[in-house]
Amino acid sequence: MLRPTDLRGVYAIIPTPAKDGADHWDAVDTVDLVETERVINRLVADGVSGLIVLGTTGECATLTGAEYEAFVDCVLATVNKRVPAFIGTTALGTHEVIRRTRFAAQRGADGILLGLPMWQPLTIDMAVQYYRSVSEAFPDVAIMVYGNGRAFRFSFPPEFWSRVVDAAPTLIAAKYSRPQALLAALAASKGRVHFLPHDGGLGKFAELSPQTTTACWSTAASMGPEPVLAQMRAQLAGDKDKLQKVAADLAWVREPIRELVTDADLMATYNIQLEKLRIVEAGYCKAGPIRPPYNIMPEPYMIMVREHARRWRELCGKYAATDPQ
User: Residue 206: which of 175, 237, 227, 184 has the closest Cα?
Assistant: First the structure.
């Protein structure tokens, strides 16, 4: 089983590619498996260290059971153990989580991305028991906590981390975005959890805890991974000057969507749309249309996304030319 120290490099988050017409209410069999295979092979060839699928960007909540299983089958068969693959198995209750996790484990998943059930908020006791149950059921499958406090209405406080590492020994990592809480979470987890920042927060995590900042997650990698790979290589090499230069470039790229990503309520409403549409506009992955009911994006926000994607393409060209692997 994977250990926390095994996680290094860029873990690309890919969308679940959709066929034309997937945004219609009566669509069936919406997953584009041909594109799924193509983009995974391209990302692995381009140097990503792992994959994370079926979270928010993966539209996990809007897939049917048959679509979910077809996609998982395709992802794991395509990866074929070349890099670690974490499969999202979050659902509304533990029984369905167990069913999904069993399916992923039987097909060779290295780990699962696991958020909390979203119907009602959980207490710390409930959350710890939830992860304990999954860990007990699958003692050879690594768990990455989907640490999105706003989405799951749970703050993931230090008490949770201190208790869950004892209750769920297969829990090795967290998809995390809170630098202000990082040091407390690291201390509470007793060094047993690898907290992966998103690519935009890597620099701050590196300032706070350079020794443990050895990997990041990135939805932007599905727009073209070159800038994020350059950033991660600089961090692993201890090249602070290069890290700052890449961070400045990434900040420039994100300027057009600042209004969306800094307003918590706005981001919560348009999270799927932002991620899926910027991937579509960048052109690296043929992500396809958005599945309903999240397939509405106001035109003013689309203008922001298009400019953001244009800048990202420009940056990919820069780093492909100047920062070869």
Answer: 237
